[in-house]
Fold this protein.
Amino acid sequence: MRFRHADAIRSDFPELTAGALRATGVDAAADVAPRVAEYTGRATARLAGAAESEFPQVLSWRRVFTRMGLKPTQYRCASESLLRRLRKEGTLPRIHPVVDLCNAISAAYAIPVAVLDADRIAGPLLEVRYATGDEQYTTFGGGTEYPAPGEVTYADSAGRAHARRWTNRQSGHSVISEHTRRILVVAEAVHEGGAESVRELLSTVSEELAAHWPVEPAAAVLTPSAPEFAFGAEADSGATGAGTEDSSAASATYVSSAARVP
């Protein structure tokens, strides 16, 4: 299975830097509370100096949402929503150890992070692209929506939408649950210096996953010349094809050791 951004998305948003990570072997039993507190503490400290709306990472996504025809104060990227909740409530909701950890890291970096159950995605392709209007999106409450034509979504090969309004909201269909064992993590930045930020974020997620579960994460920063990332059962078995991470390794150097949040 492959993850990528459509050429039209990369053309329309050349400032985009994206990274992806895969891992197999997670569960709902790990205690991540100390690490969640560490990362939310870093975000809280940053919020003490400025509101999240002033962060360069958030401002850049607000500009992208405006270009997509959305009101950025009505529809926020996921990291802004997390930071806003953290500022108002002083904490983030506890959902699942993997999600809690990635949400805290997302808040610390102010970069949207999507975490999906890889086994709930229909291959062979998960693509960030403009919707046609036929894609089916499942809400967290179990309802069904259809993204409007032209809306940016994560669409799989079965025509299922795994996100609304790009980085605004994920789908209840591929949400991480107690049954999840295989995950796909995607980080997307549009601010200046985003490539280094995404690389550091993926390193941090990799290190934390390996510290809490018996997993061997693989992650890469994607580029226009190496836009695809393999995940799922085939990637775990080492079977990759042209255009996936084996062929992109030269330009999308794989992330290993973690770099700390400044």
Summary: The radius of gyration is 17 Å.
